[in-house]
What does this fold into?
Amino acid sequence: MTERKKMQAGQWYCCLAPELEALRAQARRAVHAHNTCPPDERGAMAPELRDLFASAGNDCFIEAPFHCAYGMNVSLGKRVYFNAGCVVLDTAPVRVGDDTMLGPHVQIYCAQHAKDPAERARGLEIGLPVTIGQNVWIGGGAILLPGITIGDNATVGAGAVVTKDVAAGETVIGNPARPLERP
It folds into this structure.
């Protein structure tokens, strides 16, 4: 089984494989085209970036600068907004629901590296999906760790580090993110 197939199957794989490096290079070219296109010509998303994604609904807008590892694992619903500086390390599927907005510098991580230093040095990692529901607000500087799901209508406070699933309609804050206590 190739390293790409292992990655797509949710198994441990070597991220240093030439096939994966070629896919990351393709993503870097698309991201560069998006980030350097004049704003009045770019529209909501450079065509190279839209073509790279698994899917992108109507009226999505991604502010520059933006970065993704592969792009091919990113699926955006309709009217999704990413503010400037967002990073998506999509070694597994990243699904973002309709009408969801991300503040500046939100980071979405799917890659989990091996804990053993020797395995990590060999490039072993596993990709865990991140799913974000509909009508979610993620505040600036939040970090979403591998394998989490954020339910519909949830809010993630600025700077939160999300290590566990967030229920629909819940507001979480802090590091690690925890439910906001209401009076």
User: Anything to note?
Assistant: The longest helix spans residues 18-36.
